[in-house]
Amino acid sequence: MSLEPPALSIKGLVKRYDDGTLALAGLDLDVPAGEFFGLLGPNGAGKTTLINAVCNLIRVTGGEIGVFGHPASSLEARRMVGLAEQDPNLDRFLSVREALLYHGGYYGITRARSVERAEEMIDVFDLRAKADVRAPKLSGGMRRRLLLARALLHEPRLVILDEPTAGVDIELRRELWRYIRMLHSRGTTILLTTHYLEEAEALCEDIALIAGGEIVARSTPEGLKERFGAATLEDVYLKAVHQPRDEAMA
Amino acid sequence: MNAGESSISGPHSARAEPWRGLAWLSARECLRVSKLWTQTMLAPVVSSLLFILVFGLSLGSRIREVSGFEYDVFIVPGLVAMAMAQAAYSNNSSSIFQARSDRYIDDVLAAPMRPWQMNLGLTIGGAFRAVLIGIALAALAIPLTGASVERPLALAAAVLLLVALFGALGVVVGIYAETFDHHTFINNIVILPLTFVGGVFYSVEVLPSPWEEFSHANPLFYVVNTMRYGFLGSSDVSVWLSFAVTAAIAAAVVAWSQYLFTTGRRLKP
C-alpha cells in the first residue's frame, strides 16, 4: 500500500453560489497519486465548480481540499496543479511565447528554466510557426494547444483537463490523447472531464459520475458496466445520472 | 505534436520561488503599458501639454500672478497630478476589467502567489504608466514654463501617495466593474471633475464663500496641493494636512483592494 498522500483528497465540499444555487453538496472524493481519473456528468452537474474549487478560482462554502497532502489554498499545492480550462482564457496582450514565459514566472520558476520550458512546449505542441502571434489571432485548435502547453509548463504533478478536446478535430484529439497518455505514463496524475464517453473509456483507469453536486458512482470503466448491467459506458452514464443517488452507489 | 520527444522532464522538476510571481506579474503589467504606448503614454502627455500651451502660455499672459507664481508655472503641478492620477486609475481598472472579462486573470489567481503579491503586481502597471507620464510632462513643461522642483523629497512622497491612491482605486473599480462603462464613468464623472475643481487651474483662496470651504471637502484638492508643494514649495493649505489627508485616503483605498484579494470577493464567484 502506497504511503504517498492522494493527489486529491476532498471531504464534504460544499459550494453555494451567491444566487443560492447549490453546485456541490458535501462532495467527497479521493484521487490516488499517479492515477488517470475521469469525471463525467451532465452540464451543471458540478464538474467545473469542483475543478475551480481545487484551483482556488471560487470561494468554497465548506469542506476541505487537499492536494498531495497540502491544503489546496497553500502555495505548495498551487505549484503542483496545472489547469487547462474548458474555454480558452488566454492573455490577449501576450504572444504564444510570452504567454508561456509569463505563466512560468507566475508559478515561480526561474527565467532560464521558464524560457527553456516555453521553447520545449512550443515544439511539443507544434506552436513554433505561431510563437510570436498574440492569442486573439490564433485558430481554435491552436488556442487549445496553447492552453494545454500553459497548463503543463510548470511541470505540475496533478494536471486537470476540463473538456480538453471539446470542439477540436479528430486529428488533434488523437494527438492530445497520445500526449496525455505519455504524460500519465511518466507519473503525472490526470483529472479529466469530458462529454465524450469513448474518450473517458479509452483513457481513464478510474471514472466517477457526478450529478447534482455529488458523486453518484465510481469505478473502473469495466466495473461500472458490470455494476449497472450495461453494455456501454453511455448506458452506465444514463442510468447513473438519472437514478436516485442511493441506488447508484449501492 | 511531438509526444515522443524528450520535452517532458517529469513532473515537478522546476525549482520554484514565490517572489518571482510578483516580479513577473509586475513585468506583465508594464509590458501591457509599453505595447499600448500610443494609447497609454502618448495621448495623455499630448493632451496635458495642450492644457499647458492653451491655458498657460496663451491665456496665462492675461492672468495676473496666482499665489505669487506666473499662471503658466502655477498650473503645471496640478496638470501633472491630474494626468498621473488618471493614468494610474484608468490603467489598472481597464487591465483588471479585461483580465476578468476574458478570464485570463484565472492564470494569476490559481498561481502560487499570496494575495498581497497579486494586488501589488496588478497595481504596478498603473504606477509605472503614471510615473512615466509625470516624468515626460515635467521634462516638457519645466523648460516651457520655467517651473521648477523646489522640494524633490516632498514631490517623491506626493507621487508615491498619488499612484498608491489612484492605482488602488483602479484595481477596486476594475474588480467591481460589470461593463467598460463603469470604468469610464468613475474617470469622467468623479476623478476628472473633482480634479478640475480641486485647484488645478486656480488657487481656492480666490473663491468666494462657501465655494472655498466646499473645496476643502474635495479629497483631490489635497492631492493637488501635495504635488504643488513638491514642485513650487507652496500649498493652499498646511502641507502636513495635505499629506495626511492624501495618505489617509490612499491607505483606505489600498486596504479595500487588499480586502478584495484576500477574501476573493468579486474576483471569485
| H/E element sequence of chain B | HHHHHHHHHH
The proportion of residues in beta strands of chain A is 15-25%
Total number of helical segments of chain A? 10
Shape of chain A: globular
* Order of adjacent strands in the largest pleated sheet of chain A: 6-7-8-3-9-10
Mean pLDDT of chain A: 93
Q: pLDDT under 50 segments of chain A (min length 5)? A: none
| The CATH top-level class label of one domain in chain A | Alpha Beta
The CATH topology assignment of one domain in chain A is Rossmann fold
* Average pLDDT figure of chain B: 90
Q: What number of domains of chain B?
A: 1
Q: State the end-to-end distance of chain B.
A: 35 Å
Question: What does the model show?
Answer:
The complex is a heterodimer of chains A (250) and B (269). By secondary structure, chain A is α/β, with parallel strands linked by helices. Chain A has a domain at 1-80 and 160-169 and 192-250: 3-Layer(aba) Sandwich (Rossmann fold), CATH 3.40.50.300. Helices cover 39% and strands 23% of the residues of chain A. Chain A has 10 helices and 10 strands. Chain A has helices at residues 47-54, 75-79, 96-106, 111-124, 140-153, 170-185, 197-203, 221-228, 233-241, 245-249; strands at 8-16, 22-31, 36-40, 62-67, 70-71, 81-84, 158-162, 189-193, 206-211, 214-219. The model of chain A has no long low-confidence stretch (mean pLDDT 93). Chain B has 269 residues and is an all-alpha fold. Chain B is elongated. In chain B, α6 packs antiparallel against α9 and α6 (152-176) runs parallel beside α10. Chain B contains 10 helices and no strands. Chain B has one domain (21-263). Mean pLDDT of chain B is 90; it is low at 4-14. Chain B has helices at residues 18-35, 37-58, 71-101, 106-109, 115-145, 152-176, 180-200, 211-215, 219-232, 239-263. Helices cover 73% and strands 0% of the residues of chain B. Classes of the chains: A alpha/beta (250), B mainly alpha (269).
